[in-house]
Amino acid sequence: MTDQTPTSPAVVRTRDALRDALAVWAISGAEPTDRRAVVMTMGALHEGHLRLVRRAREEAGATGQVVVTIFVNPLQFGAGEDLDAYPRDLDGDVAKLATAGADLVFAPTPDVVYPDGDPIVRVSAGRVGQVLEGEFRPGHLDGVLTVVLKLVHLVRPDVALFGEKDAQQLLAVRRMVRDLDLDVDVVGVPTVREADGLAMSSRNAYLSDDERRLALALSRALRGGADEAAAGRGARAALATASGILNGAPGVVVDYLALVDPATVEAVPADHRGPALLLVAARVGTTRLIDNQAVDVVAAPEGSGTPDDAAGQEAPRD
Q1: Distance separating alpha carbons of residues 103 and 65, to the nearest angstrom
Q2: Which of 112, 169, 240, 297 has a 20 to 30 A CA-CA distance from 12?
Q3: Tell me, what DSSP letter sits at residue 6?
Q4: Which parts of the chain register pLDDT below 50?
Q5: Annotated catalytic, 272?
Q6: Is residue 42 a contact partner of residue 202, using CB atoms and an 8 Å limit?
Q7: Residue 44 assigned to a binding site
């Protein structure tokens, strides 16, 4: 028995080359039930991305087509953010994708995606893009949705896969697909974490060893809040517990901590029961990290009483 070297995916950089590669697959014996799946990334791939690609292979089937896009989208970076410094390693990314089941990599430059410069017409995330990430990164989700819509048109996938770590982004994409009648299924894939609980992110590479240890406060806070909710202590206690853990972590500067409805990203009331989402964004050193945790708020023990005002959002800590 001989070892087989994984086949590297084809890499295309232009619209015409992408169109040709998609057409070749379509006429090369694809069955009517085969699907094309896309994973949209900004590169600097890690295991979290590769998990998305493996799931894409499952969605597409053995003879389907898995397309990975690698594009650092300038529209979703604000003034003073890390667009120029964002890690880029196309050769390394392609080598990793060879082991994950990708067939095709579309790695355009900005002038390919935006041939006329900054687009005049863009997608608006509406109220979903005005809170939480939208408050601290104005226009960020508008930029995300604009490039996602363009890539859906260019790749023409049957299914698109996104990580649940970017929970607000996933909600915004799903809402755009529904509101604009896009013919694509959106699949969310659970967050991949390091052994110590830190959510995988390309920006983790910016953290020093000391900062990385401090960053673990984010996942600890989310677990603590989820435990409070599951113990029947209510939404407010869940938020307060998570906030206490973050406030006790020197060097962690919180942008927001919120317990929200997973379908709307609106803050849940303190008497909420059922599913919710606990989200956090914080800076450790110069690195901004986000994370979230699904929460099940169960009924409080009888006679304990629960407040009936909004659980809301914890104020940022300076």
Answers
A1: 6
A2: 169
A3: P
A4: 1-2, 306-309
A5: no
A6: yes
A7: yes
Annotated catalytic residue within 49, 140, 153, 272:
49
Task: Say how far apart CA 38 and CA 25 lie, in whole Å.
Answer: 14
Q: Is 65 annotated as a binding residue?
A: no
Nearest partner of 25 among 180, 157, 223, judged by Cα: 157
Annotated binding-site residue? 295: no
* Amino acid found at 298: V
pLDDT of residue 318: 54
> Which two three-digit tokens encode residue 122?
């863009």
Q: Which residues contact 130 (CB under 8 A, 6 or more apart)?
A: none
User: What structural domains and CATH numbers belong to the chain?
Assistant: 10-189 (3.40.50.620), 205-310 (3.30.1300.10)
Q: Hey, is 15 helix, strand or coil? A: helix
Nearest to 92, CA basis, from 47, 44, 52, 51: 44
Question: 112 and 17 in contact (C-beta within 8 Å)?
Answer: no
The rounded distance, in Å, linking the Cα atoms of 62 and 97 is: 16
Q: Which helix or strand (DSSP H or E) is residue 53 part of?
A: helix 47-60
Radius of gyration of the chain (CA): 21
CB 141 within 8 A of CB 128: yes
183-231 pLDDT, tens per residue?
A: 999 999 999 999 999 999 999 999 999 999 999 999 999 999 999 999 9
H or E element in which residue 228 lies: helix 209-230
